Structures are given as structure tokens and as C-alpha cells.
């Protein structure tokens, strides 16, 4: 509780401190004038753009029901939870420095076992004086994948593709710190390279943390809303040679409620698919953990199609170990019934802005996920590849630029794995109420 109050106090104090710098222009005759904006949060800045801050946030309240493979006994369970509850503070200081602080009070946006009082989803400083190159430092998610680049506020389905579950380290900071260099070349090329000291819980015997490298490149010859052609390639690698770690590759198959840190879930009856690996994998078992990713997207008017492919290899180090391989992909189709085009910024999709303020914008979508893994170590040595297919059907209502109501239905089928009563398929539904400011 003390940490929760302290986080709130710290955010308020920082906002006041930064605004004090910005407001210097109002108390001296030679300072810059102040501009205050209240649409989409509170934003204050000087007219010369040397100082600014914006206070905003997002709230996502989810409810889901599911059965079959999603529960241990196959019976219906439900879950109600805050998927995200962010307070966000960002802005500019001294023209060339940008900062962003996002605090998640739901402790449910990242991986497992987040702090009960929340945690810093992002706390970063960026130097922008070398435009179009940006140097970013601090805690933030590394750059990997099109769906991850798209904000959780505006991603099409409530949960991102199950393919990301095959290599959950590639686009999550896991409590680590990073440095990233990114930039654009012209209007069509984007690239980033980052190095991270990843996950304070995974260290070698000397206390040295895992080091991770991420690379991403995007080519978008068409890059305007309703007129997009996008291609991307990603690579991530980390060294596991001297580290004990949780080596499980597992997935919730689109239903976060089977196991969630942000509120009520299915408890001990929630069933999460394990495709490969083992918990508490001892140091010296494996060596390099590398993941490749490809991405492509096309949009014309209110229609869009996008796809990503991931391939991961965990190389064995010990003589009694075998390599672990996993790969997965998704294909997603989306159409805005009310005719609006989805916004696009180089390297990522963005929001849909309703043209009719009273009716809002209506979007329907379908996504197919396919994931598989091969592991000849331990419990998985006697079974063939574990594979899963997930069908996601959904609808989004953008009531306005702040409120979004969503729902989707999920059907999954698993090969070579079942729950305790032999179910190898399951159904579920998730509804979400979202407010952003």
C-alpha cells in the first residue's frame, strides 16, 4: 500500500516539477507563452516547444468465460480483471530530451508475478537532437513485431497473437534496462537496434544478468492511412549459457483469464498450454536463444490484412540436452463497416477515428493463429510436436476517440496435448471496456 501511494505521489510531484520549468515563461517577461490542451488528457507546453508534459492513461476492464481445454476439468470458468490500468506522464525537456513514465496499477500488462502494487511498464529518457535518429535509455519493451509496435489501446484483437507466446522475452522488458537506437530514412524506412540487461530474476552465479540484443527493420513503400504496404524483419538473441531460467514455452491461447495477475481468474482450474521446456532449467543446459520474425501488412480504405511469422531456436549446451525449436504465425483480416481507414505511422498501425461522432466506428475482424514446438528433453521426449490452432472472431466499437468497447470469440484446437479429462479443444469469449485519456 505504501508503494502504491508513493508511486502516485512521485508521479504528481514530477508533473509539478516539470510544469514549473515550463511555466517559467508566464512569470518572466522574456519567457515563452504557455499552451494548455485538454483533449485526450492534460497537456501543457511552451510555444517554442522546449518544454512540455502530458498526463494521460488507459483503463481496460475485461470479462471472459471459457471451457474445454481452457480449464483443467473442462467445465466453464470465468474471469474478471483489469487488463491494464495505466497512468502515463510524458513530454519534452530542453527541446532535445523526451521522457515517458507509464505506471501500471493492474500489475497485469507484462509477464507473470508482477508486483502486487503495480510496476513501471516504462520509465525512459530519449535524446532526439540527432533527428531522425533517437537514442532511448531506461526501462521499456524492446522493439520486435508489428502487433507489439501497435499500442495496446489500438491493437485490433484484445489479446495479441499467440505466436508471441513462443518467445515471450523478445518484446518484454521483464524488469530489465535497455539502450536503443532507432531512426527513419526518408518516408519509407525505419530501423532500430537495442541491447538490454534482461530480467533481474534470471542471473548467473555471479549475479550477471542476461544480455539481449533486438533488431528491427521496416520498409513501407505505401505509408498513409487507408493506403499501406508494409514489410518488416526482426531478430532477437539472448545468452542462456550460465543461467538457470524458466524454460517453459506456453500459451493462454487468447484467453488471459485462465491465469492472470490483474484480478480474478480461473484459479487452479485454469489450464495453460505448455508446448515445450521446463521450469527451473539449470544453468549450463542451453546456450544461445534466438528468434527471427517476419511481418507484412496491406491496407486499402477500410480493409486491412496483416501477418507475422516467428521462428525460435534454443541451442543445447549440455551433452544430455537437445535443441528446442518453435515456430508460429498469424493472419488477420479487419474491415471497418463505417468506412474509416485505420491510421498508420511508419512501422505500426494506430487508432481508428470515428467520422460520425454520434454513431462511432464499427470494425469486424478475424485472426488465425498457428503455433507449434518440438522438444526432445524430459517430459516432452515421448510425444510428437505440440501444436495449437486458434480462431479469433471479433468486433470493435470505437464510440469516440476515448471509449472503445470490444468483444471476441475464440475457438482453439490442440494436437498432442490435453487437459486432465482429455479435452483437446476449447471455446471462450472476452469483452472489454476501454477508456483512454
UniProtKB/TrEMBL annotation:
The keyword Signal applies. Transmembrane segments: none annotated. Keywords: Signal. Pfam families: Porin_O_P. The keyword Signal applies. Residues 1-24 form the signal peptide. This is Phosphate-specific porin OprP. The lineage of its organism: Bacteria, Pseudomonadati, Pseudomonadota, Gammaproteobacteria, Pseudomonadales.
Amino acid at each position: 500500500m505504501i508503494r502504491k501511494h508513493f508511486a502516485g505521489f512521485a508521479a504528481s510531484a514530477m508533473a509539478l516539477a516539470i510544469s514549473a520549468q515550463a511555466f517559467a515563461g508566464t512569470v518572466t517577461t522574456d519567457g515563452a507563452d504557455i499552451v494548455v490542451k485538454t483533449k485526450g488528457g492534460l497537456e501543457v507546453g511552451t510555444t517554442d516547444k522546449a518544454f512540455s508534459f502530458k498526463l494521460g492513461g488507459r483503463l481496460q476492464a475485461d470479462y471472459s468465460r471459457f471451457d474445454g481445454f481452457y480449464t483443467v476439468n473442462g467445465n466453464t470458468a470465468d474471469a474478471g480483471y483489469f487488463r491494464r490500468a495505466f497512468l502515463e506522464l510524458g513530454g519534452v525537456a530542453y527541446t532535445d530530451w523526451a521522457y515517458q513514465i507509464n505506471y501500471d496499477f493492474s500489475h497485469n500488462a507484462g509477464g507473470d508475478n508482477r508486483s502486487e502494487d503495480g510496476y513501471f511498464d516504462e520509465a525512459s529518457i530519449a535524446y532526439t537532437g540527432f533527428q531522425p535518429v533517437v537514442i532511448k535509455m531506461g526501462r521499456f519493451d524492446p522493439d520486435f513485431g508489428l502487433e507489439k509496435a501497435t499500442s495496446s489501446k489500438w491493437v485490433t484483437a484484445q489479446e495479441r497473437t499467440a505466436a508471441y507466446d513462443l518467445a515471450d522475452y523478445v518484446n518484454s522488458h521483464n524488469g530489465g534496462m535497455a539502450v536503443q537506437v532507432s531512426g527513419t530514412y526518408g518516408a519509407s524506412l525505419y530501423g532500430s537496434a537495442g541491447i538490454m540487461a534482461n530480467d533481474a530474476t534470471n542471473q548467473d552465479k555471479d549475479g550477471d544478468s542476461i544480455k539481449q540484443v533486438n533488431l528491427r527493420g521496416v520498409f513501407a513503400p505505401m505509408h498513409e492511412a487507408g493506403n499501406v504496404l508494409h514489410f518488416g524483419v526482426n531478430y532477437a538473441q539472448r545468452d542462456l549459457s550460465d543461467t538457470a531460467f524458466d524454460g517453459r514455452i506456453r500459451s493462454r491461447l487468447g484467453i488471459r483469464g485462465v491465469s492472470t495477475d490483474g484480478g480474478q481468474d480461473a484459479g487452479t482450474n485454469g489450464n495453460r498450454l505448455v508446448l515445450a521446456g521446463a521450469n527451473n532449467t539449470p544453468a549450463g543446459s542451453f546456450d544461445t536463444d534466438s528468434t527471427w520474425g517476419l511481418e507484412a501488412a496491406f491496407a486499402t480504405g477500410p480493409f486491412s490484412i496483416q501477418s507475422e511469422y516467428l521462428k525460435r531456436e534454443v541451442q543445447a549446451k549440455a551433452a544430455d540436452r537437445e535443441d528446442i525449436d518453435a515456430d508460429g504465425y498469424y493472419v488477420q483480416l479487419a474491415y471497418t463497416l463505417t468506412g474509416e481507414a485505420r491510421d498508420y505511422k511508419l512501422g505500426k498501425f494506430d487508432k481508428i477515428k470515428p467520422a460520425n461522432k454520434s454513431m462511432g466506428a464499427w470494425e469486424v475482424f478475424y485472426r488465425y493463429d498457428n503455433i507449434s514446438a518440438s522438444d526432445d528433453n524430459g517430459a516432452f521426449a515421448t510425444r510428437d510436436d505440440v501444436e495449437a490452432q486458434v480462431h479469433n472472431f471479433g468486433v470493435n466499437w470505437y464510440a469516440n476517440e476515448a471509449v472503445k468497447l470490444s468483444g471476441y470469440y475464440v475457438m482453439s484446437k490442440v494436437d498432442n496435448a490435453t487437459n486432465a479429462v482429455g479435452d483437446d479443444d476449447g471455446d471462450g469469449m472476452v469483452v472489454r471496456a476501454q477508456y483512454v485519456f
